[in-house]
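Session log. Operator J.P. requested a structure for one protein chain; no other inputs attached. Running the standard single-chain path with token output.
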Amino acid sequence: MVDFARPKRSHSQLILNLGCGTKISDAPEVINIDWSPYLRIALTPVLKRVAPLLLDQRRAGRFAALPSNIRVHNLATGIPYPTDSVDVVYHSHLLEHLDRNKAVGFQREIFRVLRPGGIQRIVVPDLERLCRQIVNDDGNASHDEAVAALIEQCVRREAYGTSKQAPLRRRIENIVLGDARKRGETHQWMYDSMNLRELLEACAFTRIRRVDYQISRIPNWPSYLLDVDQDGKEYKPGSLYMEAECPE
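Structure written below.
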């Protein structure tokens, strides 16, 4: 495994933002890591040149707007940092995309790289909240939308972006890129505060607690702007936020 360089210790802490997508922090102590197709295209000179010609306007805009401070790495191969070297690991709406039987291995890898006393901050869709929306629904027209919020991304067969393309492009993308599951777009498991706590406890994390998007034990967390949008509002409304520590 090739380790990424650790920032100079002039910074108070090292934070990994795993599976960041385009939601990044510009703080020098934050390392944004992702494995999206756009990033892999950007790293391939030939594909980078032809991508603007092949992508539709919306996708070309997303490609052009890719932040430059994202490190490209496939987390399926592990986290590229030494043992006990990281102060904080953060990931948002990533864990639910892993097969259930891979979640423990992912948590153990996070445990490995965190220093004693290090903090993991997890953001996932809140299964309990989604279920309550269905149970408490009064039978109006929004009921099916509530059901969709719970299971649509679990059962989706075609990638959402591809489903919006013209017929020929849509067919080509499905053949070349595969379905939604192959692209990692689908939810493979769902979490509430109970089963997420059980997962963390099974991997030896301690001081597990539920928080909200504004509260954290991570020093200066609000300044990193990872759980808020440009207006300071919750970036992923209705999410479950939990933090846990490596024992000292």
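Operator note: Residues 41 and 47 are 6 Å apart (CA to CA).
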